[in-house]
Every structure is written in C-alpha cells, then in structure tokens.
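User: Can you help me understand a structure? I only have the sequence.
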Amino acid sequence: MLQRLTALNDRIPLHNSTLTRFHSRGAPQISLVDYLQRIVRYAALEPICLLVLLIYIDRICNRSRTFIVSSLTVHRLVITAFCCASKALCDSYLTNATYAKIGGVSTHELNILELDFLSLIDWDVCCNADLLQIYYVNLVKQHPAYTRKPPPPLRSPTRWAGQHHPP
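Assistant: Let's start by predicting it. Here is the structure, written out as tokens:
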C-alpha cells in the first residue's frame, strides 16, 4: 500500500513550499519493503504498530493537504511513526537513539521529526478498536495473499454440578 502511494506521489512536482523536515535530498538506497523489514527485525515492534502506521499517515494527509508521502519522505515518516506508535501503544519500547540507529538517522534528527510528527497528527496517538478493525479489514481486502479466518464458534456456557447460577 505504501509503495503504491509513494510511486503515485513521486509524479507530483516538488515545490519549495511543500518541503518538510521529512524530505530527504534524495531517495534512500534501501527499498521501503527492506526498510520495514529492518525496523520490524531490529525494533521487535508489536504488530499493532504496523497497522497504526497507516492510521497515522492518513491523519497527516487529512490534516495537512500539502504533505506528500513520497520516496523522499516515506522512510523518515515510517521510523518516526513507529517510534511514536510504540511509545503510545506498547508496554515496552526502545530509546530514540536505538530507533534512530535502526532507521538510519541521527538521534537529534529523530527527536525533531518526532515533535513535528506529533504536531502533524495533533498529538492524536490513540486509536479505538473500531478504527483499527476498519483499517485491518481494508488492508486485508487490498492484498490478495491475505485471508481472513472465520471467527471461532461460540461456546455455550457450561454449568458445573453443585454451583448455583442466577437465572
């Protein structure tokens, strides 16, 4: 999904008025897929962070019509989103220095990106279960390799002999 978005947005002419801290001078040599795999491998991210990444990107694009997710912005955007998502949603997370090392940016740069990112999403780092479900279902529908498992069958409550259960 992100690859398609960046490929589409790379066709949009770049203007000085739309440059952000997330823009790099040139597209990184590492592919987006390899970059995501690197982050997942070394940061040991919880799967929810991958889904929340998409929600955060949508929030930025909805709030800032001039922000363009392209090959010049996506890598910095991804590492920053994962850094913020893990802090907001996970019981344990890494330091910014570690995320920066994994993401190939300096700690100072990640600190600045994190503040800009949080401002872009209006500090709205939480996602309710309904929103997560909507994004999950849409993600599944867009990828033919994914299949949705049927829900487990409902089990009827069991009654143990000798115990009183209210009607």
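Now, to help you interpret it: Helices lie at 2-9, 32-43, 47-63, 74-89, 96-103, 107-120, 129-142. The mean pLDDT is 87. Let me know which part you'd like to focus on.
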